[in-house]
Design brief:
126 residues, mainly alpha, globular
């Protein structure tokens, strides 16, 4: 369990730690996968990379994490929901919890640039 009181913010999912991913899994009723995701080091960067998985990689992921098809579909829908929220600008930009406050401006600017590039990739996926 993450030491922070608040769940991870969706906009920042690409910088989520393994613990953040676990908290998110609990929120979307997939908490039974929390331990195996942690054991396999699934963090936000890994979740982000899933959008370009091949069929073979998807099947490997499902087998490795012992997921049911319905749960995998739920996972993908929830990831898509987060991306759409980012596209619509519904999430505020903030520095990661682990970054020193003196670097806030740097992280916020990087997150805004990252949001813009993700918006472009979302439009291309549609």
């Amino acid at each position: 369990m993450s030491s922070r009181a608040h769940p991870p913010e969706p906009l920042d999912f690409f910088i989520w730690t393994v613990e953040d991913v676990g908290s998110w899994l609990e929120e979307i009723n997939l908490g039974s996968y929390r331990l195996i995701f942690k054991e396999n080091g699934v963090n936000g960067e890994y979740l982000e990379s899933m959008s370009v998985f091949t069929t073979e990689q998807i099947l490997h992921f499902i087998r490795r994490h012992h997921m049911k098809w319905g749960d995998f579909i739920t996972l993908c829908k929830e990831l898509r929901r987060i991306k759409v929220a980012c596209l619509k600008g519904e999430q505020r930009v903030r520095r990661p919890w682990w970054a020193p406050s003196c670097l806030s401006v740097v992280f916020v600017k990087a997150a805004k640039r990252n949001r813009q590039s993700r918006v472009v990739s979302l439009k291309l996926e549609s």
